[in-house]
Amino acid sequence: MVFHAAEAVDTISLSTAKNLYYDGDHVVVFGSVNTIFEDMPITIQIYFGSNLVSIAQPEVATDGTFVASFYATGTKWKDEGTYTVRAQYTPTQIAEISFEFFSQVVDSSAAAFPVDIPYSGTFPVGYTIRGGDVHNITMNQERYSVLVETTMVSNGNLILKLPRESFDAQKSNGEDNTFIILISKENNEPEDFVQVEYEEIATSSDYRTIRIPLEEGDKWIEVIGTYVIPEFGSIVIIILVVAVSSAIIISKSRFSVLYN
Known about the structure:
It is a single chain. This protein is about 0% helix and about 50% strand. It has one helix spanning about 240-245, and strands at about 10-15, 20, 25-35, 45-50, 50-55, 65-70, 80-90, 95-100, 110-115, 120-140, 145-165, 165-170, 180-185, 195, 200-205, 205-215, 220-225, 225-230. The strands form four sheets. Strands 9, 10, 11, 13, 14, 15, 16 and 17 form an eight-stranded antiparallel β-sheet that branches. This is PEFG-CTERM sorting domain-containing protein. It comes from Marine Group I thaumarchaeote. Keywords: Membrane, Transmembrane, Transmembrane helix.
């Protein structure tokens, strides 16, 4: 039984909760159809290349919405790279999207980049990057930030292992504070940056390790903390919101997806 007008164009909207997933994550696929058939599920398939990785047939709600969750682990999830989600409701209602999948990365660094300290040598920032290359990492004293220059040829991620003695984000009581992560695809100008989400994957008394999802074409990643190494002067605690709002226009996170 068709609940919507027959003249409506049959379409499927299709999304994933995130653009990037890791081994052990749940890949959440959701969307809607504008033409509903009673007791007819939608078929959702996940492919890596031509290989079928997983399949589900969730029911379509009376408002046309659907959702399915796939546990991304096991032998069929052995390949890293771009996976394709294909949803089909009728022979003519088909939609496809893609996401990136990588093996889980623990607290480690593939390389260490020497960050210059004005008039006082360098300090190392460990990093691992997927989907591109790191060209340079610099410290911005005035903004209490680390600026990473990259070339991203595909969606991926950047892991930074930040030494606390040189760079950190802390509250006035000494507890850890969140970093602010800004990304630009254009120039290194304040108006070009947008704020994105990140994940803190490891914390110790000496290091904080964060993972930042990146997209193809991302060029600049700025990590804003609350203090830099003492060689710049005494350690200064700042209010993150004031520091950022006075210099940039923060845009809504491109990685947040709202669905009910």
